[in-house]
Design goal:
- This protein is of the alpha/beta class.
- It folds into three domains: 3-244, Aminohydrolase, N-terminal nucleophile (Ntn) domain (Glutamine Phosphoribosylpyrophosphate, subunit 1, domain 1); 257-453, Rossmann fold; 456-604, Glucose-6-phosphate isomerase like protein, domain 1 (Rossmann fold, 3-Layer(aba) Sandwich).
- Helix content is 37%, strand content 23%.
- An eight-stranded antiparallel beta sheet has the order 3-2-4-1-10-9-11-15, with helices on one face. A seven-stranded antiparallel beta sheet has the order 5-6-7-8-12-13-14.
- A hairpin with a 4-residue loop joins strand 13 (225-228) and strand 14 (233-234).
- It is globular and about 80 Å long.
- 57% of the residues are buried.
- It binds 6-O-phosphono-alpha-D-glucopyranose (G6P).
C-alpha cells in the first residue's frame, strides 16, 4: 500500500525517484508525486492522479532539478484518488513536503487542534495533518527538522513510513517508520529510501532496515543518525542484500505475472536448494533442526495469513495433520486478530506472507507472541517486518514477486510447508521411512514437471479465449486440491474481474449447483488420487446440468476426458505434492483470460501487492 522513495546525493534526484516509483508501482497506482529542493533552495512539489507515467508527462515542462527529493505512488485510504490527495503534501507555509505510507489513526483530533491554531487543509488526507503537525511543532518550539519530526511523532497514533524535506535545506532528508516498511540504502556519498529494496539495489547493496519508532537524519556528506521515539540514539546496522536487477525487470516477458509464472521451476529449485538433499533423499531445514522441539511439544499448530498465503496455509493444514498428526487451525489474519482467539503458550503459530509486511498478519503475530506462542514464519522478503518478528522460520527464496497476483510466492510457500511437515514428521516418527523417501524424491522432480506444464501453454491460452464471455466461474476441488480451487478462483477475480468462487466439490450440491447452466464454466481440479472417484461423480453432476467443464487431470486420464469439455493434463506425483502442479494451469488460465479481456494484469484495479493497512 503506497510506495515511497527518497534520494539525497550528488546526482539529479528526479530520474532516480521516477525509476524507483516505477519499481514500487505494484504497491499502489492511483496517483503519484514528487518533491525536490533545487539549487536555489526552492521546494517544488508535482503530483497528479493516475499512474507514474502521468506524473512523468506532467513534469516535462517543470523545474525538476535538485539533488534531494522524495516521491510517492499512492493506494488511497483517506480521500479518493485526486491531484489534491496525492502525495507529497506541503505544510501550510510550503516550507516542508512529506510522503507517507500508513494511516494516522488520531488524525481527526490532531486536525481539530491544528485548525484551532489557524491551519487550513487542502486535502482530505491524514498525511497532510502530519506534515502540518511537524511544521507547527517546528515553529512553535524552534526545532530542527529532525527534532520536530521526533516531537510530532510522539503525538501520533497509527502506522507510518515517512520521508520529509525542507525548503532552503537541500542537505537534509528525514525519515521515520512505525509498522510500515522503510529501507535506507547507503551508497558512496549518496542515500536512498525505499518501501522495499527494489528502488535501491541498482545503486547499492548496503542497507539499513529501519525498525519501528525509529527516525533517521540523512545529511549530505555525513554519517546517518538514528534515534527512536524514546530519544535513544542508535548505532546504524548496515546489512548487505542479495538481489539482482534482472530479478526485478520483466526480462522479455509482456508482464511480470507471466515472467513469475514461468520462473516457478527456478524459484522452487532455489527454495529447495540446500534443504532437499537429493543424494541422501532427505530434507534438512535448519529451523526444524533447531526448533523442532517447539513443534513436538505443541498441542496444535495455528496458521495465519491473508490472500494467496492463506490458501497456502490451508494446504499446510492437510500436510501437518496427515504427516505430523498435529491438529491445525488456519485462519485469515484479519479475523484471527480480532476474535480474541484461545492461544496457549505451547502453541506454534506459522504466519505465512510473501511481503512480510501485511498489517493483519503482523498483528496476528503480535497477539500470539503476547500470549507466549512460538512463532515460526514462512516469508519471502528477507529482512521484512514479519521475518524480524518471528522466533524462527524458513524463507521461501522465491525472489522478488512484482505482479500483484501472487504466483511463485504461492508454490514456494507450499514447498516450504511440505518440507516443514516432512522434516517434522521424520523427527517425530510419525511417517514411514519409505513414504518419506518416496515423497522427497517426487518433490525433487516437481520443478521439471512444472516446466512440462508451462511448455503446454498454448493449449491453455486457446482454452482461455473461449471463456472470455463468462461473467461467473466456479472452481471445484477436493482434499489438497480444494485450496487450489480457491486459489484459481482468486487469480481469475483479481486480474480479469470475472466473479469466481472456489468450492469443495461435494459441497457444490449445497448451493452453487443452482448457478449451473449451459453458459457456466466450471473448472474442476481432478487429478487421479484418493478422491478421484468422488470428484468424477461431482463432474457428472455438473454435466447433467449442462455446465461447461474445464478439468485439470492427471496425465493419461481416460474417465474424465469422456465427460469434460476441455482437459488440461498435469504430470503425476504424490497426492500431497499435487497442488504444486495443478495450480500452474489455473495461473495460466486466469492470465490468458485477463490478457484477452485487455486487463492490466500487473496492476489490477483497486488492488495492491503489499497490504500494509488493516
Ligand atoms: C495482497 C496481495 C496478495 C497476497 C496478500 C497477502 O492481497 O495482492 O497477492 O496474497 O496481499 O500478502 P502477503 O505479502 O502477506 O503474502
Amino acid at each position: 500500500m503506497c510506495g515511497i522513495v527518497g534520494y539525497l546525493g550528488n546526482k539529479q534526484a528526479f530520474p532516480i525517484l521516477i525509476k524507483g516509483l516505477h519499481r514500487l508501482e505494484y504497491r499502489g497506482y492511483d496517483s503519484a508525486g514528487v518533491a525536490l529542493v533545487n539549487n536555489n533552495g526552492e521546494l517544488n512539489v508535482y503530483k497528479t492522479k493516475g499512474k507514474v507515467k502521468n506524473l512523468e508527462d506532467y513534469c516535462t515542462d517543470k523545474d525538476i532539478s535538485g539533488t534531494v527529493g522524495i516521491a510517492h505512488t499512492r493506494w488511497a485510504t483517506h480521500g479518493e484518488p485526486s491531484d489534491a490527495n496525492a502525495h507529497p503534501h506541503y505544510s501550510q507555509t510550503k516550507n516542508l513536503a512529506l510522503i507517507h505510507n500508513g494511516i494516522i489513526e488520531n488524525y481527526l483530533t490532531l486536525k481539530k487542534f491544528l485548525i484551532s491554531k489557524g491551519y487550513t487543509f487542502k486535502s482530505e488526507t491524514d498525511t497532510e495533518v502530519l506534515v502540518q503537525l511537524i511544521e507547527y511543532v517546528k515553529t512553535e518550539h524552534k526545532l530542527s527538522l529532525y527534532d520536530a519530526v521526533h516531537q510530532a511523532l510522539t503525538q501520533v497514533i497509527g502506522a507510518y513510513a515517512i520521508g520529509i524535506i525542507e525548503r532552503n535545506n537541500p542537505n537534509v532528508l528525514v525519515a521515520a517508520r512505525k509498522s510500515s516498511p522503510l529501507i535506507l540504502g547507503i551508497g558512496d556519498n549518496e542515500f536512498f529510501l525505499g518501501s522495499d529494496a527494489s528502488p535501491i539495489i541498482e545503486y547499492t547493496n548496503k542497507v539499513i532496515y529501519l525498525n519501528d519508532e525509529e527516525i533517521v537524519k540523512i545529511e549530505r556528506n555525513k554519517e546517518v543518525e538514528i534515534r527512536n521515539l524514546k530519544n535513544v540514539v542508535l548505532k546504524p546496522e548496515i546489512k548487505e542484500i542479495e538481489m539482482n536487477l534482472e530479478d526485478i525487470e520483466k526480462g522479455g516477458f509482456p508482464h511480470f505475472m507471466l515472467k513469475e509464472i514461468f520462473e516457478q521451476p527456478k524459484s522452487l529449485n532455489l527454495c529447495m536448494n540446500g534443504r532437499l538433499q537429493k543424494e541422501l533423499n532427505e530434507i534438512k531445514l535448519s529451523g526444524i533442526t533447531d526448533f523442532g522441539d517447539k513443534f513436538e511439544k505443541a498441542n496444535r499448530i495455528l496458521i495465519s495469513a491473508c490472500g494467496t498465503s492463506w490458501h497456502a496455509g490451508l494446504i499446510g493444514k492437510y500436510l501437518f495433520e496427515s504427516f505430523c498428526h498435529k491438529p491445525v487451525s488456519v485462519e485469515v489474519a484479519s479475523e484471527f486478530r480480532y476474535r480474541n482467539p484461545v492461544i496457549y503458550s505451547n502453541d506454534v503459530l506459522i504466519p505465512i506472507s510473501q511481503s512480510g509486511e501485511t498489517a493483519d498478519t503482523l498483528a496476528a503475530i503480535k497477539l500470539a507472541k503476547d500470549k507466549g506462542a512460538f512463532i515460526y514464519g514462512i516469508c519471502n522478503v528477507v529482512g521484512s517486518s514479519i521475518s524480524r518478528m518471528t522466533d524462527s522460520g524458513t524463507y521461501t527464496h522465491a525472489g522478488p514477486e512484482i505482479g500483484v497476483a501472487s504466483t511463485k510466492a504461492f508454490t514456494t510457500q507450499v514447498a516450504v510447508l511440505i518440507m516443514t511437515a516432512l522434516s517434522l514428521a521424520k523427527r517425530m516418527n510419525t511417517i514411514e521411512d519409505s513414504q518419506y523417501k518416496k515423497i522427497v524424491s517426487s518433490l525433487a522432480k516437481i520443478p521439471e514437471q512444472i516446466q512440462e506444464i508451462l511448455d503446454n501453454k498454448e493449449q491453455i491460452e486457446n482454452i482461455s479465449k473461449i471463456f472470455t464471455y463468462a461473467k461467473n466461474f466456479l472452481y471445484l476441488g477436493r482434499g489438497y486440491n480444494y485450496p487450489v480451487a480457491m486459489e484459481g478462483a482468486l487469480k481469475l477475480k483479481e486480474i480479469s474481474y470475472i466473479h469466481a468462487e472456489g468450492y469443495p466439490a461435494a459441497e457444490m450440491k449445497h448451493g452453487p449447483i443452482a448457478l449451473i447452466d449451459e453458459e457456466m464454466p466450471i473448472v474442476v481440479v481432478a487429478p487421479h488420487y484418493s478422491t478421484y472417484e468422488k470428484i468424477l461423480s461431482n463432474i457428472e453432476e455438473v454435466k447433467a446440468r449442462k455446465g461447461r467443464i474445464i478439468a485439470i487431470v492427471s496425465k493419461g486420464d481416460t474417465e474424465i476426458k469422456k465427460i469434460a469439455d476441455y482437459c488440461i493434463e498435469v504430470p503425476t506425483t504424490e497426492e500431497c505434492l499435487s497442488p504444486l502442479l495443478t495450480v500452474i494451469p489455473l495461473q495460466l488460465l486466469s492470465y490468458y483470460i485477463a490478457v484477452a479481456k485487455g486487463r492490466n494484469v500487473d496492476q489490477p484495479r483497486n488492488l495492491a501487492k503489499s497490504v500494509t493497512v488493516e
